[in-house]
Amino acid sequence: MKKISGNKLLVKALREEQVDTIFGYPGACTIDISDELYKQDYTKVILPRQEVALVHEADAYARSTGKTGVCLVTSGPGATNLVTGLATAYYDSVPLVCFTGQVSRHLIGNDAFQEVDIIGITRSITKYGVTVRNREDLGRILKEAFYIARTGRPGPVLIDLPKDVMGELGSAEYPDEVNIRGYKPNTHVHVGQLKRAVKMLSKAKKPLFLAGGGINIAHANEEFTKLVDMTNVPVVTTVMGRGAVPTTHPLYIGNLGMHGAYACNMAVNECDLLFSIGTRFNDRITGKLHSFAPNAQIVHIDIDTAAISKNVQVDVPIVADAKEAVTKMLEYVTPCETGKWLDTIEDWKAEHPLKMKKKPIMTPQDVIETINRIFDEAIIVTDVGQHQMFTAQFIEITEKKKLLMSGGLGTMGYGMPGAIGAKIGNPDTPVISISGDGGFQMNSQELATAVLEELPIISCIFNNNNLGMVRQWQKLFYGKRYSMTCLRSGAACRGKCGEVECPVYTPDFMKLADAYGAKGIHITKKEEIEPAFREAMKSTKTPYILEFDIDPEDLVYPMVKPGGTLEDLIMDC
Known about the structure:
Layout: E1 4-5, H1 6-16, E2 21-24, H2 31-38, E3 44-46, H3 51-65, E4 69-73, H4 77-80, H5 83-91, E5 96-102, H6 118-121, E6 128-131, H7 138-150, E7 156-162, H8 163-167, E8 169-170, H9 191-203, E9 207-211, H10 213-217, H11 221-231, E10 235-237, E11 252-255, H12 262-270, E12 273-277, H13 283-286, E13 297-302, E14 316-319, H14 322-329, H15 339-351, H16 364-374, E15 378-382, H17 386-394, E16 401-404, H18 415-425, E17 431-436, H19 437-442, H20 447-452, E18 458-463, H21 468-477, H22 509-516, E19 519-523, H23 529-537, E20 544-549, E21 559-560, E22 569-570
Parallel strand pairs: 2-3, 2-4, 4-5, 5-7, 6-7, 9-10, 9-12, 10-11, 12-13, 13-14, 15-16, 15-17, 17-18, 18-20, 19-20
Antiparallel strand pairs: 1-8, 21-22
Helix pairs in contact: 1-2, 1-7, 3-5, 3-18, 11-14, 12-15, 16-17, 16-23
């Protein structure tokens, strides 16, 4: 067989793995790969404006399509700029394959120009990482990378490519199969354990499903909704699990946890069986561990063995893919007697409904409810902060609407690039990003990418002039000492807050949009919300910024007190 360079083999592998889009930023150690990509016409190359944003774009592309996201960056700073995005994908179980350039083998370890040990740096935030040391191993490693990224609990894989290895001639063969000793993801459900869990469900007086992000990752939404209908068991979700059943479903209560609805948190406290699927039981949903679901037996289905009983001790562990487990459950379940239990939950909902106080001025709920009303189909991508929690509380998610966000890591700056990745992967679906004014500025340079790729995304900025979530904590728990959270502060007012006039907010987002070739609308009143969205919806090639003036005193309620239990809810202030 004719020998080819490692660079050519990589491009061949992308086609074999049906990679139709790669997000890349070039450099000296990857310029030869860029040259090979130039010569082919199967894989589209997206050139963002920064590697930090690039990996978020690949991440959201993967989340919204079910495919594996692929990145290509150069060595040194190009590689280290991936770190936050890799951690984001790792905690949220997103399949990524990231290729980093590396200096030639004889320079590794010599502090060469743009040389870093990226495998060592990212070992704890990747599912697998390796530097290719021998050209003959390249094909096998590439095949394994894609297999590892998308099987079992999905996650990011990093392949480090020394420049000399990639230039070396070798076999053109790309493997058809993978056989990795020690990595055999579980693909079967333990029927005995599952039947035991179903029997417990049928006997419970106050059963409750807890749906995590694993249901969305496994695309088990339809099957899980059937399970809920068949059993008549109510559902709470984690923030990442929102959409496991349509939020309009009569048995859906809402999100639980730190900013969960009162009825959700009370249901977890009072249930006698908590049937959890696809969640890690992290601190944002449990509060104090010793008081979490104190009256319940716990069933836990998860693809990752390490996640079971890691934080919360469970009574029935089941290691399985969520879709396979739920599908199998449908063969055994029967309707549960939950009438009285559902009445109790309805009483809690009526006692403390999830809504913001009605105000004459515009609120985040007004904006989100407008999205619910006028978009039948959409992908909603959030940044991280108050706006994210408002969205998680009020956005309606149905079969035609998806919600993407950074959950486990809580990465500010995810919103704009996430929307770009989602739109590239779903060109016929409306894509809306919701960011705070702080998070938006962390990757606002990606407006250039959106403009040049002709992506008509709608970027909503909830502008409260502050880093709102931190400010909320400062108001409630730090005596209103607003340190480092006002985004209008600077030299003119430092140390003189309240004594001098605040500087003008910077930047002017409308001028920023214009400078990039996007369009912008500044919304200050309730009655302007829907016309602004209607105008933005007309665009077929140009991104829009919709800036909403939000009162910094609009706080996210309910809120669990720091170090508290799910019962320690602050309902309002």
